[in-house]
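Deliverable D4.2, example record:
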Amino acid sequence: MEDLANLKKLLMLKKDDVSKDELLQLILDNTSASLKIKLHRKASEAIPDELNYILLEVAVRRFNRLKNEGMANYSQEGESITFNSDDFDDFKDDIVDWLADQEDKPTSLGKVSFISGYSGGSGMRFADKVQFYKSNDHYDSSNPSGEPVKVGEAIANVTHLGVDRSQQLFGSIDVDRLVVRLIEPFNDGWDVLTVNGGKTYYKLQTGVHPLKIMGYIVGETQNE
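Output generated by the structure prediction step:
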């Protein structure tokens, strides 16, 4: 009932006005079911507290456009309003960040343990080396082939995003995608990276920030 009460506050409906409660609860239930699918949660599981704002904000949008379902935009009281085809589009980055956070959590522990890639034990292992490069857009006689220029290197934890997750988050499986996690962010400007000195370049697709770890989801690109 707390979500219903908060939704009514956002819609500026009086607490004792119960005339729309049944409709509002239906909107909340449908929105909750949709959000749980995107978060890979079971129907019996609760929406995480840190993402509950998405439930409320989407519910507000759905209520406000109830009589205009299926329309791309409409004008109400002189104000032009445009709707997304997917109500959750504006929250995609937050959902990606949360999902990446969950991937970093061992199922047997209450929190992630960070250990050296060269030590034993369980937890996240930072055993990879990532090389960062800047695109070479200008002719350089010392680099006539125009290969990207290396600007730095960092220890990282690198895993494949996976076909199913790639399809769910990006709507395609056309490129190989990696999740690259760093202990500290690499702040120098870079355009592409390689892993463990490999020949394949990967470009940034989205940043993720699970816990205090800086991370990137990168996709394979052509060597140019």
